[in-house]
Amino acid sequence: MKIITSIDELKTIIRKEKQNGKQIGFVPTMGYLHDGHLSLIEKASIENHFVVVSIFVNPTQFGINEDFDVYPRDLERDQKIAEIGGANIIFHPTIKEMYPNGYRTYVEVEEITEKLCGASRPGHFRGVTTVVAKLFHIVTPHRAYFGLKDAQQVAVLQKMVKDLNMDVQVIPCPIVREADGLAMSSRNVNLSPQDRKTALILSKSLAKAKEIVAAGERNAEMILIQVKKTLATEPTVIIDYIEIVDFETFERIDILKGRVLIAIAAKIGKVRLIDNIILEDLPSCI
Ligand code: PAF
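That is the input. Now the predicted structure with pantoate docked in place:
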């Protein structure tokens, strides 16, 4: 497995692979890979002949007071994990390679980017769509794999690909969790041991919501009351949002029906974490 830092070099390699009839799978990441990333790389390796994993902590998707500087980085460790997953190349460009002096072009998806994480992190999705659009142009993959922990990111990228007629299939993949339920995230390493325990309340609250829905509750407000009650058992958690939205439009809903996303974002210690569940094919009552 090779580590490539130059856009031109990567494009030349991809061109040759495509001339030889190879299908290209792509896993964009910001590094500090975990088993969630590994599952994406493994799936990409099964479904494609040649797999590129990008590792780039993208500055344009971080706000000024966010955690760009302390975002975990460990290329050597990432190399081992990507290799286990079957990646052929790690693309690890510098910031200057991606955004040279005078860079002025941005990609923006409207509306769904104004809700949930978009509302609390202004400019975040503009940074995500810009970097992913650039990466898609560089890698020209047949398929690109994203984890559903960032469910809104997946929806935003699917919209970008559709609206800009990009020739790539965005493949959403299930959330991978630790044995105790915590959704895997590169940011988990920045949790103190106590905060790591506290963080479990996110998946517990979502499990509570799932249980209430399974028991027949369809009123969003009633479900939110119970979720907030569960979250309140850990008073140090600072909730950013808890929302129940339609998974297509990301609009808030009053009554659960069809495909629904229950999403939480919260600060635990210094770390902002997100988690969600997607409830499929919900009849309006049971
Ligand atoms: O999900 C991530 O790690 C990032 O948002 C992505 C898609 C790699 C873009 O920087």
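The longest helix spans residues 124-139.
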